[in-house]
Amino acid sequence: MNLAETSTEIIAFINCDSTTKALFETYQLSGRKMMYFENGIELVNNWKKNKLQIVAIVSQSDVLSVNGISLLENLEKRQLLTTPFCLILPKEQLTEHKRKLALESGVAELFTTPLSAESIETRLNFLITNWSKISNKQQHKAFAPYKTEFLKRAFDLLFAGTALICLSPLFLIIYLWIKLESKGPAFYYALRVGTGYRVFKFYKFRSMYADADKRLKDLKHLNQYAANKEVVEDIPIADDLDVRCAECKAADIACRFPIYADNIQWCEQSYIENKSSKANSAFFKLKNDPRITKVGKFIRNTSIDELPQLWNVIIGDMSIVGNRPLPLYEAEKLTSDRYALRFLAPAGITGLWQVEKRGKGEMSEDERLMLDNKYAENHSFVNDIRLILKTIPALFQSENV
After folding, report:
1. pTM for the model
2. Can you say whether the dihedral through the CA atoms of 221, 225, 227, 233 is positive or negative?
3. Where is the chain membrane-spanning (predicted)?
4. Which domains are seen in the chain, by residue range?
């Protein structure tokens, strides 16, 4: 049968395993034909080439995976998504936070395994038949990063504004102390990655010597999080600022998960091909860091160096409580399904891992990331207040960073 010359209605399945395929072959789906594709690129190429009459898309993928809401958003941008988009995933993986993200992003239905024939037949047939009416009413929004709720934002402004006024004498003392001990500005900013991978200027009191960044390469062997003690060569910088992998170029699409360092952009797949993923840890942290000044050690152990971030809260880059925004070289490595969830929570001055782990010894990279994900899935205004109350005693626990 030449699908390009027929009006056969097709349900497109993405990334489905053999068990799911066998089950759907037994379901009553009003005589519609089922077609299976490995990924979104294969779907798009066949859709255009054969002018398929696709009436629904069902992807067996996690909400945050490349074939989840990322694929949905890509289809919307290409103006191809005029049909219901559904996901199949294990019940234990579907948290309330992921459910909310999926529905807000425009996912029509979330089916959980083990699949129910009655549920699939009833719901999928209904969605296909009534999708034009349903989609007009719902006005689905494209997936967007976390947006601060009014109550949380009001609290942030009140807390940060009051703190800046009350702490202004301390700001002056620390400013003079830093200037007297070493040359360079008392304040500095660095680019950080926060909610939704948004990059912003992150303000702190300077706690290191002015040439600390230049000395970083010579100290890689001291990395607390390194998988091994070998010094790893830097990835070569490409002249082309938009380096895409062969897959993305063949499909003529923008990189679905780009990674950044300074003003350079790579496709994640190209990045992985050029640098072994096990060679570098995502985090870089030195124990007894020789780049830190005497005043720097004090303001770090008491978290005074973080106080200028109150200004980041005032201008809306951060919240009082949230996941710590990351340097570019750390965030560029956290685009996998396992860790991307942390970027769907507010960026904050203090958070879950700071309170639970501060002063309790070294913390592994996995521990830190899992705590970030835990906060992203369970954050609320009430929980934020609890973390703030726990932060106060934590500030006075010494931590050798």
Report:
1. 0.47
2. negative
3. 157-178
4. 3-138 (3.40.50.2300), 150-235+275-395 (no CATH)
